[in-house]
Amino acid sequence: MPRKRIEIKPKVEYLSILDGDGNVDEALDPRLDADRSLHIYRLMVIARRLDERCINMQRQGRIGTYGPCRGQEAAHCASVVVLEQADWLVQAFREPGAAYHRGWPLETVLRFWGGYEEGCRPPDGVNDLPIAVPIASQVPHAMGIAWGMVTKNDPHCVLCYCGDGGTSEGDFHESLNFAGVYNLPLITLIQNNQWAISIPREKQTASETIAQKALAYGFDGIQVDGNDPLAVYVATKEAADRARSGGGPSLIEAVTYRLSVHTTADDPKKYRTDEEVARWEKLDPIPRYEKYLRTRGILDDKLVAEVEEDALRDVAAAVDRFEASREVDPLDCFKYMYAELPPELAEQREEFRQALEREGYGKSAGGH
Amino acid sequence: MAQLTMVAALNKALDDALRADESVVLLGQDIGVDEGVFRVTADLLKRYGEKRVIDTPLAEGAIVGGAIGMALYGLKPVAEMQFSGFAYQAYHQVEQHVSRFRNRTRGRFGVPLVVRMPYGGGIRAVEHHSESREAIYAHTPGLKMVIPSGPRNARALLLASIFDPDPVIFFEPKQVYRSFREEVPDEPEQMPIGKAQVVREGTDITLVSYGAMMRPTLEAAEDLAEQDRVSAEIVDLLSVAPLDTETIVHSVRKTGRAVVIHEGPRRCGIGAEVVARIVEKALLHLEAPIRRLTGYDTQFPYFARERAFLPNADRIAHAAREVLAF
After folding, report:
1. A41 to A56, A96, B222: CA distances (angstroms)
2. What pLDDT, in 10s, does the model give residues A243-301?
3. What is the CA radius of gyration of chain B?
4. Which residues, listed in sequence order, are joined to residue A129 by a DSSP beta bridge?
5. Helix-helix angle A34-59:A285-295, to 10 degrees
6. CB-CB neighbours of A344 under 10 Å
7. Separation CA A237–CA B161 (nearest Å)
């Protein structure tokens, strides 16, 4: 009847490849080819420009509440690129660059925040899940998809995003527990952006890292500099390769920062200091990565200008497409409730149709 | 044809589905080696292996949330909640995701899953094991909510639910699990979801019920026939969402009188919906106010008091007599 220590093998790696000034650790540099390196850069820039545009549009009343990703571009843009087409992406709600990479048109982001369900419809052939608003409740879906892959013996993986606040939810823990038990090809990437609305990371959990939570479920967690695209890429690539070859789940904690508001309805001045934001501004992933790409000879002034121009043009075109397609039939709210419309809904639909007709809905311009 | 209990009939439906379609998988707590706490999944692990009959850790949220992912990946998961009283840990998944996927993805992704769970009182169970909260699911847009009443319709409705393209919450009246046997065909059969059944024809009064309350309702009808020469028609709802207005209203137009019976609480219960629809569609056919004989708007009592609490044949007959005497 001893009282002793049980030896477990705790391991929490930390990975950083590109420092805050854009200097690279040559030994760890994945030396991605120019195309892929540039693609990650383009995704980050486009996510940033879209983000800025969405905030402006919210202020102008052209879309509703918006949740920005400013500062977090590296964490999602550099991780999503490791996915193959047959892999699945499960979003939270701050990863527009990832969705864009997977083939979601930019205007779907505007549609979602603009109040249209169409913003949740994955394009045909893209097997990703749409934005999920309730916190961490998307993680079980990612886990279930990974379970489906195991059941069908498919060598693919699922990449699921979740925030630091989400790691307090039961869904996060239940999903990682199942993923460990069934050795599922699930990569859970935590975008630790330091703040869950007003609750700082230190008040979210007493554990030193979020990455270490994986240990409780029987697999490894890794913490990476989430503003370092190279570290994010390497950690996610390793996790994906492992998952696809039967090596099971991974937890990646990307340490990043939400430079902007939680959503456009939030005022962060109430809970954090300008000094803190300024400190993180210096670690902004885009200039860091830009400097690295210039050093490698992949990027120059001309190309930077070109990428900026392309991003602004693509975002403007997406805004145009969004605003040109705002006319939708309100009766659509019945259309997709069930595969076949039950009689009681058919009756309600008819009642709604008559009400709209009486009110002359859609006859005036706009019709919203 | 074999004489089966509801448990055996449900087992047969699961077996039929697993055999017919490789994408059908079962998951839940204790459903494999232990064959389910009520033995509904008996022999299935042995027959189909642990990739298709999955013993899970204790976590209702992950069972239903994981089943969503499986369904999105092309499987047909049938999740078992050990008791409906413990399904609330998964209710957020049901409300926030199961019920919404088809609509919010504009038809791109449906979630064809079934969540089975034993519900209702009458088996002397512990706290949290006896409630009857079908109204919560019936109130949630995007779900189908099915409640069989006997072995044959349990098998046919479960099979229909598994192959339905939409999510189905399937409540199993555990009081009926082993209380009687019924002829169940050897060949798989399905019943349409959303259709009620007139299980007893009558002319004087309509008794509307479902699930475990069908037995006392049938008894009450026999009693009324023998004692009072009253001819009661009985409508078994079978599905409380969608609800078969046509069959209910057709019957009440004929009889002019109705009693609605369920064991769940009265306030905002299925009975309230049934009465509202009768009033909307057949008010001028009514000869008397409609009565609701239901569980009360109290907590379901611990089992020492449950026999006193649950609606029974005497009370149903009494309520019918009051309506007839109006």
Report:
1. 23, 14, 78
2. 999 999 999 999 999 999 999 999 999 999 999 999 999 999 999 999 999 999 999 99
3. 19
4. A90
5. 150
6. 17
7. 40
Helix (H, G, I), strand (E, B) or coil at B281: helix
- Length of chain B equals 326
> Which sign, positive or negative, has the C-alpha torsion B195, B199, B201, B207?
negative
CA of B192 to nearest chain A CA: how many angstroms apart? 12
Using CA of residue A49, residue A50, residue A55, residue A60, what is the dihedral sign?
A: positive
CA distance A13 to A253: 10
For A218, the token pair is 């029987």
Q: Are strands A250-255 and B2-4 parallel, antiparallel or unpaired?
A: unpaired
Cβ neighbours of residue A149 closer than 8 Å, sequence gap 6 or more? A155, A156, A157, A158, A184, A185, B73
A100 is known as an active-site residue: no
Spatial contact of A63 and A114, defined as CB atoms under 8 Å apart = yes
User: With 90 as the cut, is the pLDDT of residue B101 above it?
Assistant: yes
**Where is A115: in which H helix or E strand?**
none
d(CA B120, CA B135): 13
**Other C-beta atoms lying within 10 Å of the C-beta of residue A19:** 14
Cβ contact (<8 Å) for A148 and B70?
yes
Which amino acid appears at position A269 of this protein?
K
Q: Is A221 exposed, middle or buried (0-12, 13-18, 19+ CB in 10 A)?
A: buried
Reported as type and span, the H/E element at residue B322 is: helix B313-324
**Has the ipTM of the complex gone over 0.85?**
yes
pLDDT category at A367 given cuts 50, 70, 90 is very low
From chain B, the residues in CB contact with A126 under 8 A are: none
- Chain A residues close to B51, C-beta within 8 Å: 150-151
Cis peptide upstream of residue B242 (ω within 30 degrees of 0): yes
Across the strands, what pairs with A263?
Answer: none
The torsion angles phi and psi of B236, rounded to 5 degrees, stand at -95, 115
Give me the numbers of helices (H) and strands (E) for chain B, helices first please: 12, 14
C-alpha dihedral (A91, A95, A97, A102), degrees to nearest 10: 0
Integer CA distances (angstroms), B58 to A177, B42, B101, in order: 10, 20, 25
Among residues B128, B30, B125, which one has the least CA distance to residue B85? B128
Marked catalytic residue, from A14, A31, A36, A271: A271
CA B275 to chain centre: 19
Structure tokens belonging to residue A184: 């599922």
Q: What's the rounded Cα separation, in Å, for the pair B26 and B5?
A: 21
Residue among B190, B57, B138, B312 nearest A180 (CA): B57
d(CA A31, CA A21): 18
- For B268-286, the pLDDT digits (tens) are 999 999 999 999 999 999 9
**What distance in Å separates residue A219's CA from the closest CA in chain B?**
17
Residue type at A6 in one-letter notation: I
Separation CA B213–CA B315 (nearest Å): 12
Q: Which residues of A touch B89 (CB under 8 A)?
A: 170
